[in-house]
């Protein structure tokens, strides 16, 4: 942490938020005033975010979140970085903090048993245990636990349908895992709802496992949702499991196709990346909307009309109105007396 001036925070908290839009404005204003960047989702069921900032700014941000009684139990996964991991700050109000099609489930009421990284490590290789990756294809193709079961899904909302393929595992201990733990909260709850008896989840996900248990037996890299794209996890027995989408050589360098219409998340080696100018195929390279390639394969998402100052001016206007009303009331009091 000392050698790199920035922190990257990954966190979530399932908690009731009565007025998500009002809290979105407050939360967003704090981020702007403290130079916090990233993506944060506010919903009636809680908050979920990945943000970056200078160490001292991230400390303020964590104090701000934890200082709210609703989010006092929030756990932050903290990594260090040499710069901001995001170009902008987006704080959005949405129906769910992760799109799951499982809104009826409340992890605060029922979810799988949480396993700390060392507990997960001790349990994962036992005979009656199966390890279940609940992430999407492009994530587990880049990296996953040794012997993990993966599901053919492009988005987490497809998870409930795929659980039908796991009926034969109902007599096993099922250990679920994901990047930071948030998907497992509902995935494990849904498994319990479907009749699985012995369900666990890796508390803090792959990121915490790498930090606290050395990442042993996690093969490949972990896909993350910021401009780092992929991070190392395993310090004990690392192994590359992905191959370049273009030439087939061993490769764990993850990129987004430079053609925004395609935008596939794929491992592409540096050589092929330059030869195809960031695209995943000749057709994508020649697409008229192809984005300029700078060698990273990361492209800032379009704002889609999102105003980074939404709510701030409205908030200032409200304060001005309150001030005017207060002055008028004082004036009236003076006249009355």
Query: How would you name the CATH homologous superfamily of the largest domain?
Result: Rhodanese-like domain
User: DSSP strand (E) fraction?
Assistant: 15-25%
Count the strands? Answer: 15
How are the strands ordered across the major sheet?
4-1-3-2-5
Q: Write down the overall mean pLDDT.
A: 91
**Which structural category fits the helices and strands?**
alpha/beta
> What is the 3D form?
globular
Specify the number of helices.
10
Main beta sheet strand tally, sense and closure: 5 strands, mixed
User: The CATH topology of the largest domain is what?
Assistant: Oxidized Rhodanese, domain 1
Regarding quaternary structure, what we see is single chain
Please identify the top-level CATH class of the largest domain: Alpha Beta
The appropriate CATH architecture of the largest domain is: 3-Layer(aba) Sandwich
* Low-confidence parts: 332-337
Q: In percent, how helical is the residue content?
A: 25-40%
Offer a few descriptive terms.
Oxidized Rhodanese, domain 1, 5-stranded mixed β-sheet, 337 residues, 3 domains, alpha/beta, disordered C terminus, globular, Alpha-Beta Plaits
How do you describe this structure in short?
This protein is of the alpha/beta class.
Could you please describe the fold and organization of this structure?
With 337 residues, the chain is of the alpha/beta class. It folds into three domains: 6-93, Alpha-Beta Plaits (2-Layer Sandwich), CATH 3.30.70.100; 113-231, Oxidized Rhodanese, domain 1, CATH 3.40.250; 242-299, no CATH class. Helices cover 29% and strands 20% of the residues. It is built from ten helices and 15 strands. The strands form five sheets. It has a five-stranded mixed sheet with strand order 4-1-3-2-5. Strands 6-10-9-7 form a four-stranded parallel sheet. A two-stranded antiparallel sheet has the order 8-11. A hairpin with a 6-residue loop joins β12 and β13. The protein is globular and about 50 Å long.
């Amino acid at each position: 942490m000392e050698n790199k001036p920035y922190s990257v925070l990954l966190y979530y908290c399932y908690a009731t938020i009565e007025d998500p839009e009002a809290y979105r404005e407050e939360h967003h204003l704090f981020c702007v005033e403290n130079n916090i960047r990233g993506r944060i989702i506010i919903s009636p069921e809680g908050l979920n975010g990945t943000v970056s900032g200078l160490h001292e700014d991230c400390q303020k941000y964590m104090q701000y979140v934890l200082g709210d009684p609703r989010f006092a139990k929030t756990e932050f996964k903290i990594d260090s970085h040499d710069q901001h991991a995001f170009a902008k700050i987006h704080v959005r109000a949405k129906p769910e903090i992760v799109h799951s099609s499982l809104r009826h489930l409340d992890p605060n009421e029922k979810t799988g048993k949480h396993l700390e990284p060392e507990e997960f490590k001790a349990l994962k290789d036992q005979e009656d245990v199966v390890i279940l990756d609940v992430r999407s294809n492009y994530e587990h193709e880049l990296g996953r636990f040794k012997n993990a079961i993966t599901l053919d899904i492009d988005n987490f909302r497809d998870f409930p349908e795929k659980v039908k393929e796991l009926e034969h595992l109902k007599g096993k201990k099922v250990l679920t895992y994901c990047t930071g733990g948030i998907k497992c909260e509902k995935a494990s709850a849904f498994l319990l709802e479907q009749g699985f008896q012995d369900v666990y989840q890796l508390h803090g996900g792959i990121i915490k496992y790498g930090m606290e248990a050395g990442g042993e037996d996690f093969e490949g890299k972990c896909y993350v949702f910021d401009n780092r794209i992929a991070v190392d996890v395993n310090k004990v027995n690392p192994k590359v499991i992905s191959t370049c989408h273009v030439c087939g050589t061993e490769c764990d360098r993850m990129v987004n196709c430079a053609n925004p219409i395609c935008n596939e998340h794929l491992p592409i080696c540096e050589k092929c990346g330059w030869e195809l100018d960031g695209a995943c195929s000749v057709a994508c390279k020649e697409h008229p909307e192809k984005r300029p390639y700078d060698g990273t394969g990361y492209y800032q998402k379009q704002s889609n009309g999102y105003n980074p100052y939404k709510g701030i001016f409205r908030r200032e206007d409200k304060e001005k109105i309150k001030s005017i009303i207060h002055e008028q009331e004082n004036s009236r009091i003076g006249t009355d007396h």
